[in-house]
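Suppose you are handed only these lines of text.
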Amino acid sequence: MSESKIKSVAVLCSGGDSPGMNCAIRSVVRTAIGNGLDVYGIQRGYAGLLEGNVKKMDASSVGNILQHGGTILQTSRCPEFHQPEIRTEAAHILKRKGIDALIVIGGNGSFNGAWELHKEHGVLVAGIPGTIDNDIEGTDYSIGFNTAVQTAVEAVDKIRDTAHSHDRTFVVEVMGRKSPEIALHVGLCTGAENIILPTKDEINYDQIAADIKRGIKRGKGSSIIIAAEGEKEGLSHRVKDELLNKHGIDSRVCILGHIQRGGNPTAHDRFLASQMGYIAVESLCRGEKAIVTAQRKGKILAVPFEECLGKKFNTDPEFLDIVKTLSI
Ligand code: F6P
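From them, the structure of the protein bound to 6-O-phosphono-beta-D-fructofuranose can be written out as follows.
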């Protein structure tokens, strides 16, 4: 371990929480201590930073947390942070508190805030991808996605039991306003007959109905449609109504909602979070100024912040083909 370029670091969680954030906080705190840094936890994201809600942490502050969902630091969405003058205030607070670098665990909006802080005020920043949506550009996975998918898969397996018993069709709504990732993974893992993704395209109800009817013809009892919530509330009920009114197919709706955001993180998310926290701190100690920890081809790397701005939309058409081929 060589002499660190910084003396202190703060960590915050921002945006929607995701299982594994605690594990990342633990990793940041203990790696910072290992490097001889003072480490601070900022409560409730950027909103807490603006209130000066910052407390010093030690090894015990993060004891017995890695297996728990949620975040001990809590989180928030902070639309005010889009305003440059608010970010100036945040930079001043960091300076006044003697914080040399900021680690942000969150998704796209949170990363944009960190990047602006860096560009405008030279704040040293590291981003750790933490969102169940898995929609951050530049990393294969974000912390919490694997757990959210696992939670939803377990729920859909249960729904399949009752769907099968009653020869029923279910529309199961998963999270993802703009991100197709949870829907795609859950759809494939549960053998869903159809997946509705959050695209601007019209939903092809004729196709969905034809698929269900074809299944029934070959003796299939149940059908599951996985629908990503999309941006307009009430999607799954609209799907139910269309299927009934235009195609005579009765169905039940189940919205999984925020259960996908909670629960103990899977081993995969703990593995990811532990490494990402460590690499974020080590990179800042080495003198990196603005990086994101990203998983690429199975390896966790520190990559330039700019590579991880914006949303990724990689709905691989082959992936959809696999789902279709397997669910006949
Ligand atoms: O954090 C991501 C996410 O869970 C999305 O999947 C979902 O659309 C959104 O957050 C819900 O946000 P909120 O909890 O603020 O309603």
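What can we learn from it? The radius of gyration is 22 Å. The mean pLDDT is 96.
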